[in-house]
Amino acid sequence: MSAKSPPRWLERMLVLFLHSRDRETIPGDLLEEYREEQQPRLGSIRANVWYARQSLSLISFWNILGPPMKRLLIGISVFTAAAGAWLAVMENLLKHAGYLERTFIAAAIVIQAAATLLFLAFDGRPIFRALVSTGSIGIVLFGASAIQRILKASYC
Amino acid sequence: MDNVYNVDIVAGLLGAFEQAVLLTVWRLADGRLGSRHSSRSSGLSHPPGHRGAVYATLDRLEAKSLLDSHLEEGTPARAGRLRRYYHLTAEGVSAMNESRAALERMWRGAKWPLESRA
């Protein structure tokens, strides 16, 4: 009889969010407990639910910021900073009405992306965490106000 | 001055959960913390969904050099996946002793269990 195992996709998801040093050991601990205790006691379906809950408890904020999610976040931040810088340059070249306000928004986007990169580079030190949180709130408010203006303009 | 507590005594203490983890590793002959066997035999149980706290604490204690770990071959039940074994370092033993001594100093003169003064 072959040994029972949790669904492969659940195992893969867990491995994806773990640091490289834990990618063998933690899934091994879980699999051992799954096979020796949970599956015989609970049956396959409930044991799979148990495995999913255990996996979720291991996916913390810091795990998400660990590789490969950290690399993804760095890529997104660099792209956002480049897009913001491009927007600011184009606004200043074209100088359409209200370009100063839009340049300010573009600069805020660049600063926010740079703060996120600093946060990642310095392992989430509290000062950068505060900077990133403040910047994120600012960007969300800018975005909300822009959407509100677009909606108002389309109904006028 | 019996009623004055030096805050440095408390500031240097290990957290209760950290002490529980270190004591568990010390008690386990094989240091297999995190596995079913060790959780059950050591008395360090965790509610479902709180396993992450155990691993996070182990990582933190290792980063503080209070614990050390090494990898060994996995069993068939683990599909051959490596197992991490932990053991207390000299600093870990010293930190545990200091924490215990600090708590005892803090409680000195207080009759236990405490009675309400309200």
What does this structure look like?
The complex is a heterodimer of chains A (156) and B (118). Chain A has 156 residues and is mainly α. Chain A has two domains: 8-59, no CATH class; 65-155, no CATH class. Chain A is 81% helix and 0% strand. Chain A has helices spanning 8-17, 25-42, 44-58, 61-65, 69-94, 99-121, 126-155. In chain A, helix 6 packs antiparallel against helix 7 (126-155). The mean pLDDT of chain A is 83. With 118 residues, chain B is mainly alpha-helical. Chain B has one domain (7-75, 82-107): Winged helix-like DNA-binding domain superfamily/Winged helix DNA-binding domain (Arc Repressor Mutant, subunit A), CATH 1.10.10. Chain B has a two-stranded antiparallel ribbon with strand order 1-2. In chain B, helix 2 crosses helix 4 (51-63). Chain B is elongated and about 60 Å long.
Give the SSE map.
The complex is a heterodimer of chains A (156) and B (118).
Chain A: H1 8-17, H2 25-42, H3 44-58, H4 61-65, H5 69-94, H6 99-121, H7 126-155
Helix pairs in contact in A: 1-3, 2-3, 5-6, 6-7
Chain B: H1 7-11, H2 16-27, H3 36-42, H4 51-63, E1 67-72, E2 83-88, H5 90-107
Helix pairs in contact in B: 2-4
Short structural summary:
Chain A has seven helices and no strands.
Backbone shape of chain A:
elongated
Distance between the termini of chain A: 71 Å
End-to-end separation of chain B in angstroms reads 23 Å
Low-confidence stretches of chain B: 34-43
What is the strand tally of chain B? 2
Overall pLDDT of chain A, averaged? 83
CATH homologous superfamily descriptor of chain B: Winged helix-like DNA-binding domain superfamily/Winged helix DNA-binding domain
Helical amount among residues of chain B, as a percent range? 40-55%
Rounded to an integer in angstroms, the radius of gyration calculated over CA atoms of chain A is: 23 Å
